[in-house]
Amino acid sequence: MKRMKSVSFIITLMTILTVMLSACGSNNNASSVPGTSSPSADASSSSSPNANLTGTLKVQVIGDFSVEDKTDPKTGVTSKGLHVVKEEFEKQFPGTKVEFITMGWDDYNEKTQTMLQSNAADVYQVPGIAKFAEQDLLEPLQSYIDRDKFDLDQYLTGQIDGWKAMGSKDQNPEIYGLPFIGDARLIVYDKQLFDDWGVEYLSEAPTPEELMEKAKKMTGKNPKTGEQNFGITYKAGDAADSVMNINESKGGQWGTGFLWQDMKIDFNSQTMVDSLNWLVEATKYAPTGVLAGQGSENFLTAKNNIAIALRMPPGFVNDIAVTGTQDRFHAALLFKNPTQGMGGMFAGSPFAIGNTSKNKDLAWEWLKFSGGEFFQKYMWESQRNQSMPVIKSAANWDEVKAIPQMSVILQQMSQLWTPRYPYRSGQPRYILSENVEKALLNKATAKEALDKAQKDSTDWISSQ
User: Which CATH class for the 55-183+347-413 domain?
Assistant: First the structure.
């Protein structure tokens, strides 16, 4: 009887030790995944219902990406290639293999369309997400979000809504992609020129009236240097988007609807006419070659002679780091709708899953992984010229806090107009741009130009 009790005790002890060892093993696995200890950590972890997935995942990316490390010929700085995130994902999901398909920006929508139709990849970078969702080429994500209780609140305000789109059967915009590249446009100004002219710096959220007043004051011979200064500049190709943003500040909007068959544009409203006239007036205080893309070559350098630039991409923080003018140039927010508190065209890129992918669960893990700390820090460190962080926790990164302009950039990204301008992906944007340019070149009045843009765009939408 005593021997039976001893055997029973040994068996029980071995069982307890086995359970304890298993628990220790589980804890070790969990802690090996970067960032799992914080709420904004990489979503892919050992607790994921898909943690045991295996197979090959094909990921398409667009832009200046390279799988291997590369050195910038201008700065001599070497940036890490995509192999960094590939290795990390494969470590988190043993038995998986990531293959990248890289492409440039030329004809990217057409190339992506072909890839989606031929099931060439599982995950796609789709800045033109609305175009593909309406053809039912993308996988809707809400069921995956619900299943994993995936926390969308880790993203900056508006970043999820900004990429919503509509499939052919959807009644409202739905989630078809998760953001991984952040982008925005900002008003950037030269504090040294403001000081030279004795003009107060721009407000954090200036109005068009403030910009016009200050641009006028700083056009002419610089009172300290005697050099010719200009009050304002802008990129000619972005002129229509500037007009649209000014229009927002006056309470206007581009139109209504999302799918082409439901869309009604409002290009020739009185607020749009007033906004185009504002830009026509502002052009008087810009370099003479502004519409040909000339005269602003020295902006962001020590030789700069322009006080204010409209709609600068956030990558300007890298330019001023190279030129050593970090303390000279600062950023202000785009104009915003006075009642909505938002303004500016939504930009960046999301990842989406092709609806014919055979690896949808693994692709979903990649989408979650792309919004985690590891992936977002990689993008910030290696792709800073084309990517801003899309997650809230980035504001606490030491390297972000070290750049004063970043607080404005992240704030701007959180107040872009969402859902995104649907017209951005199609012909109406080009029609509007063409006619805005005619007014800026004095080939038509603002009213004539916008009436033409309204008619031609309405006709085009009707033909879809």
Answer: alpha beta
